[in-house]
Design brief:
Chain A contains no helices and twelve strands. Chain A has strands spanning 3-6, 10-14, 19-21, 23-26, 32-38, 45-50, 56-58, 64-68, 73-78, 87-94, 101-102, 106-111. By secondary structure, chain B is mostly beta strands. Classes of the chains: A mainly beta (112), B mainly beta (116). At the A-B interface, strand 5, strand 6, strand 10 and strand 11 of A face strand 4, strand 5, strand 9 and strand 10 of B.
Chain lengths: 112, 116
């Protein structure tokens, strides 16, 4: 079974600061990797995914993530955050069995 | 909006009562998933269907839990004899089966269950 670890529980930063959220997973086989975001009062939404090819993937709203296989990592980045990026961010992984394993989530608070 | 729809949004009940939640997936999605999320944690997988077939159940799904998807469209999740520990947000998601496990799952708003 897969497991996912997110390094930060809560991140607070100012607008225009850069954001990086760490995600590590444990699974020896081929995986698909996802970042989901949950804005206050809304449902989980897909930010981006990786399943093969270029390990640097770009998602919506200026987010990107890099898959580093040797480190079992899939860190999320955004060069310059906005107040509207305040949300909870979840890293998730699945393999051939479709079911997603999620990390505990990171709450990001962006101060105007 | 033709996203995943869940009803009710909130359910408050006394311990020992039975509850049933409904999920309507995106119409062309043939895979449907149930997850449970407690405070401070990410969603945890409970079960999933492809069309009307229930393909996998988590060990989290005790005998008091049952899920159905009778016609391969909407799904229900029933909890019998509810316990305090059942208090959580119950999330439903759907996806296309074609293309494999990298198909993204689309989530509903969830049903928040509170046990008194």
């Amino acid at each position: 079974a897969q497991s996912v670890s997110q390094h930060n529980h809560h991140v607070i930063l100012s607008e225009a600061a850069s954001l990086e959220l760490g995600c590590n997973y444990s699974y020896g086989g081929t995986v698909n990797l996802f970042w989901y975001v949950q804005y206050p009062g809304q449902h989980l939404q897909l930010l981006l995914k990786y399943f093969s090819g270029d390990p640097l993937v770009k998602g919506i709203k200026g987010f990107e993530a890099e898959f580093i296989k040797s480190k079992f990592s899939f860190n999320l980045r955004k060069p310059s955050v906005q107040w509207s990026d305040t949300a909870e961010y979840f890293c998730a992984v699945n393999a051939y069995d479709y079911k997603l394993s999620f990390g505990a989530g990171t709450t990001v608070t962006v101060r105007a | 909006d033709t996203g995943v729809s869940q009803n009710p949004r909130h359910k408050i009940t006394k311990r020992g009562q039975n509850v049933t939640f409904r999920c309507d997936p995106i119409s062309e999605h043939n895979r449907l998933y149930w997850y449970r999320q407690t405070l401070g944690q990410g969603p945890e997988f409970l079960t999933y269907f492809q069309n009307e077939a229930q393909l996998e159940k988590s060990r989290l799904l005790s005998d008091r839990f049952s899920a159905e998807r009778p016609k391969g469209s909407f799904s229900t999740l029933e909890i019998q004899r509810t316990e305090q520990g059942d208090s959580a947000m119950y999330l439903c998601a759907s996806s296309l089966a074609a293309g494999g496990a990298d198909q993204p799952q689309h989530f509903g708003d969830g049903t928040r269950l509170s046990i008194l």
